[in-house]
Every structure is written in C-alpha cells, then in structure tokens.
Amino acid sequence: MSLKRVVSSLTFVSALAVPAVAAAQEPKKDCEPGSWFCGDTQAQPANKDNLDPLPTEKTDTTPAETKPSSPPPPVVVYQPPPPTVVVQAREAPAPYYYVPKKAQPKKEWGLNLHIGGAMLGKGRDDNAGLGMAGLGLRFRPIPQAAIEGNLDFAAGRDYNGYRRNETAFTVNGLIFLNPKNITQVYLLGGFGWSGAKATDDRAGYDAMEYSYGYFGIQTGIGLEFRLSRAIALNVDLRGLVRTRIDDDKRRNPEFVSGDGKSTNTSGAGLITGGLTFYW
Predict the structure, then answer these.
(1) CB-count burial class (<10 Å; 0-12, 13-18, 19+) for 54
(2) Domain assignment present for 120
(3) Half-sphere exposure of 279 (CA within 13 A, CB side)
(4) DSSP character for 116?
(5) Residue 177 is part of a domain; what is its CATH number?
(6) Is the terminal CB of the chain with fewer CB neighbours within 10 Å at N or C?
(7) CA distance linking residue 177 with residue 145, whole number of Å
(8) 213-241 pLDDT, tens per residue?
(9) Nearest to 192 by CA among 154, 161, 225
(10) Could you tell me the sign of the dihedral formed by the alpha carbons of 202, 204, 210, 215, in that order?
(11) Position 58 in a domain
C-alpha cells in the first residue's frame, strides 16, 4: 500500500469522526454529557395503585426533656476605693451627768368638815363650855404645805356664864412634816375674826345682851390619817389668843375682876376632829 493511500484513508476517517464526536457531546434530555450511546427514553409513571405504601416513621410524642438554663454570670460592680479618714486627736468632752427630772407635785383641793370644843376653864359659875362645828376649804399645792379657810359656829356658856352664840372665820397654814406617810403630822398657824352675841340670863329677868367683835391668832399641832387617796381623818389641838376690836370695848370691858381690874383679851384651847375629802 502506498503512502498516499494511507493518508487519504486517515483523512476520510477523521471527517467522519468529527460529527460523531459533536453529536455525542450534545446533551440530551435523558443522557449524561459525554455518553456515546443513549436512547430517547422516558420513564413511565408508576401506577399508584400497585405501589406499596412507604413505612411511616413513628413520631415520639414524649416531650423533650428541658434542661435548666445555666445562671447568668455574676455582675461585677467596681466601686471607688473608700475615702481616706484622718483621725485627729482632740480632748474628750466633759462627762455629762444625767439628773432625772423631778415629777411635778400633784395639787389637791380638800373639803374639811369638823366638830370640836373650847376649853375655857370652869368659869365664874363653874358651867363654862362651848361646842363648835364648821367646815373648811383646803388648797394643797404641794404635799408639804396647805392653806385652809374655815367657817365655824359655836354655842354654849362663856367664861362669864353668859349664853353665847359665835361665828368665826379663820385662815390657817398647815405644814406636813411627813407627807409620804399614811399618818401625817402637821403644824398649823393662822389668824381670824369672829363676832359673838352674849346674853346674861343668870337672874332670870332683865336679861342683858352684849355684842363682841374679835381678832385673834392661833397655832397648834395635828394628825391626819389617810383612809384613801381621797378621804382623810384629822384631829388637832389649838391654842388661841384674841382681843376685842368692837367700838364698845373701852366703855364695857368683857372681863372685870373682883378688885376692879378689866381686860378685853382672852384665850382658850380648841380641840377639833374632822374628815377631809380630797380631789
């Protein structure tokens, strides 16, 4: 075979091979790129009635276990450093002495009702004696002291044997020596005025009436026994001295002795007991 024939054969084969390669490289619907042989095949849809159902997956209805969430990280707060404190030495303050406040004393008012008698001696006819009754209003601003105004009425026979009626008003101050005790000792002193009417009825006829006015002072000592906070019993002994202050004192003196001496000054002892209501 000659060389010229071989070359012609190769050229013919190459011309046939190029379209085939191009046709093979063209992508078809059902062929993969680069396939040499492929058919124009189309898969027929399968009959749904002839297919077995696919197995269903069982769903787990158990709720998923929830894990507690981890706590958040701690919050770090950066504060400025504390201020520098400089301690300076100084003198200690003077000690303070606490003095408790004294309780204010309770003020009291009292109504005193009392009876008593006058000690005059036997008198000229050995029949002298006076009984008395009265009341008093007492103000006690502190437990240790009080002031009292009294109105008293007396009746009986006086030193001269005359029948007498007398009214007296006195003001007394009282000092209590032991006011915290149930039984309290007190001292009293004061002054007062009185007016009297005396009737000389010894002869039984031609009775003479005399009017007297007096000013006097008195002092004494007594005991008060507290039955309760509001009620107290009292008894006291007083001595008084008085003189006449009426206009007839010079012309008609009250006391005339057998030797002709006269005076208008007299004295007596008083003993009284009573009951005081406090509020």
Answers:
(1) exposed
(2) yes
(3) 4
(4) E
(5) 2.40.160.20
(6) N
(7) 9
(8) 999 999 999 999 999 999 999 999 999 99
(9) 154
(10) positive
(11) no
Domain tally for the chain? 1
Q: Quote the CA–CA distance of 209 and 246 in Å, as a whole number.
A: 15
What is the sign, positive or negative, of the torsion defined by CA atoms of 190, 270, 266, 197? positive
Cα within 13 Å of Cα(117), Cβ side: 7
Q: Which domain holds residue 180?
A: 108-278
The answer to whether position 52 is within a domain reads: no
Asked whether residue 53 is domain-assigned, the answer is no
Q: From CA 231, how far away is CA 223, in angstroms rounded? A: 14
Confidence category of residue 74, pLDDT binned at 50, 70, 90: confident
User: What CA–CA distance (Å, rounded) separates 177 from 65?
Assistant: 95
Lowest mean pLDDT among 38-42, 207-211, 260-264, 272-276: 38-42
DSSP codes of every residue in 237-256 = EEEEEEEE-STTTTTS-SEE
Amino acid identity of residue 254, one-letter, is E
With a threshold of 0.70, does the pTM exceed it? no
Q: Which of 218, 195, 197, 223 is nearest to 208 (CA)?
A: 197
Which H/E stretch holds residue 14? helix 3-25
